[in-house]
Amino acid sequence: MTAKPRDDMAAAAAGRGRLRASHADREHVLDVLKAAFVQGRLTEDEFDMRVGQTFASRTYAELAALTADIPAGLIGVQPLRKPARAEAPHPQNKVVNSCACAALTVLALGAALVTGNVGLSFVSVVAILGILFVVGGRMAHSSHKKRSTRHRW
Q: What is the DSSP string of 10-38?
């Protein structure tokens, strides 16, 4: 059976009560105090007072006195939550973006034809062909993906 962290602190205080505590010991006491505060075992004033005393404590005995009335095993602080996964963009957003690009390219081609700008019309034609190529690739990938998921055994 393993000893609980607070039991270790109490045993250390009993055997080494007059020895100086380290920063890690103070951090451990702060974790216990935070857990007690979150669980409603300490008021905000008590928590603030004990945190100040923790930083001022120099020995194991002083630190042990700060957590003597808090139940052992309280340090089982809640595990860190997993970070939220980024959501994939909605498929309709891809369609809207593609349509917006196509519309802007068609407008640029129209402006190039009206003004007689040959360079802009060439770029617009290349952009339209590129958009058609990308949209065609997406459609082919999407239909292949749908077919491959339907026929899984």
A: HHHHHHHTTSBP-HHHHHHHHHHHHHHHH
Cα dihedral 125, 129, 134, 138 sign: positive
Tell me if residue 116 falls in helix, strand or coil. coil
Q: What is the rounded distance in angstroms from the CA atom of residue 142 to the CA atom of residue 148?
A: 10
Rg from Cα positions in the chain: 33
The three-class DSSP label of residue 47 is helix
CA–CA gap between residue 109 and residue 124 (Å, rounded): 5
- Give the highest mean pLDDT range of 2-6, 71-75, 91-95, 131-135: 131-135
CA distances from 94 to 39, 67, 74, 104, 131 (A): 46, 57, 50, 15, 12
For the stretch 70-82, pLDDT in tens is 887 765 544 434 4
